[in-house]
Amino acid sequence: MDQKLKNKLSKLPGKPGIYKYFNSEGKIIYIGKAKNIKKRVSSYFTKQQFENRKTEILVSKIADLEFTVVNTEIDALLLENSLIKEFKPKYNINLKDDKSFPLIRITNERFPKVYAMRNPIKDGSEYFGPYSSPRVMHIVLELVKKLYPIRNCNFNLSEKNIVSKKFNVCLEYQIGNCKGPCEGLESEEEYMESIKSIKNILRGNLSEVKVHLKSQMMKSAKDLRFEEAEKYKNKIEALKSFQARTTVVNHKIHNVDVFNISISQQFAFVNYLKIANGMIIQTHTIEYRKAMDETESEILEMAILEMRLRCNSTAPEIITPVKVQNFDPDIKFLVPKAGDKLKLLQISMTNLLHFKKEKLEQYDKTDPELRVNRLMEQMKEDLKLSVQPRYIECFDNSNLQGSFPVSACVVFRDGKPSKKDYRIFNIKTVEGPNDFASMDEAVSRRYTRLLNENQPLPDLLIIDGGKGQLSSTVAALKKTGVYGKFAVVGIAKRLEEIYYPEDPLPLYIDKKSETLKIIQQLRDEAHRFGITRHRNRRSKGSLGTELVDIKGIGKETARTLLKSFKSVKNIRKQPEEELEKVIGKSKTKILLEYLSSS
Fold this sequence. Notes:
- It contains 20 helices and 20 strands.
- It is of the alpha+beta class.
- α12 (340-366) crosses α13 and α16 (514-548) packs across α17.
């Protein structure tokens, strides 16, 4: 660290604010917030060992720093969020959402219009949303327009234009979708009363709307306008039906924000639900590309600020799956353990996982290398490895009551079979059915050869078998001198347990995980390859015995025949002159006599 940076560190204030790190080229590479700038920034430069490699790389590139002091922690959070969006530093988490999401807009004009749109404009209009999909938004919009017919024309309905009868009612008026404010058939006061009720529906305040509709119904009935009263009754029923379909928890849960999170290696996904009167009235999922090893709490903190600003939320309560630093004393943060509020988190997670699955599948198709990196990182994490298992080998034994034993070695690179690297080992030193000894011989031969030829060793070795086979493998690796140079595990078939050397307790991986699927594919491929080669060897061995049993045909002649024609079946098909070319006339005569009689 140079003297200039040391001087700046010594002068840092112990107040809330943000800090910016610059590289040697003067470019911002990281922006952070802190409750105490001095403590937070100093911690980067006093740590002897970092929790992850990315932080270590970041610190090594810091050439200069700047800071900005603010009054409160929430001010620091707001400023950090704003600056990250503006400068997009390399080591900050990156919001991937393109801000194009379904909204309902109430325009800022006389006789406002209500319609669906994306990409809000700052013109004084009010926006409600975002909604999880256009389908959900249109369901709400359909209800609104069914209850309160409003205009969808672009006329300038100024008082002067209406009084002068500049406009005529259109088809929308004739079919009941508009009450004709353009001709003064609906007053501005009446129209704005409808807009007020629409806003209440969009905010989830259905009780106020129901009270209003009921009062209108009673008034119409009192004035003997029964057809009009019937219309209000139908609207109340439609509202009740909508409420029954959308209420997911206790209706007493009102004005609450719910956030849930799911993290993969490169991405983080955060789902947001807005709850009013037990109903989900807004929902959206945003996606971040991770830059460092940010924690769930850190990402949630950013997402909460982003979504509350975007949705103009002032909910006094926020529900999260993990504890989040309370950046605003006026907000209650809650991590529920049971009850209806936990159910809200579960609903949020269901939406979140669906979105995550679709996104990752989309990325897998458009960027195969991204999928490989994600899969390898997932395997590293699931199997507690120190490196990504880019190069994996798997062994399996095959024999028939100890006869013709073989051991198969299959190779996967980047999660896919590399068949050109497959190897088969005919077991030479083992008598009888002894899987442990066969595994010892095959593993010893394999890695002795790799060492002698200066070939790279695998990142991971998988043994098809439990603790017994794994122990034999470890003994062979120690004998060869490669034990500890790469990871080795065994997979037992019964419950798909993963065993580690010198650990009596197995690891159980999620049955639906990609890691287990790759391991099973390796195991099955080793079994298939071993069985196929074992059958070939057994077939050749039994055919060779049959030929040797012919009086006048010895081992050398049998070997010559099998070498030339591969099998007895092929030998039977050969014309006499072809056989004579290989073993001569006299032995051909003996062979043909035997084959014709067998």
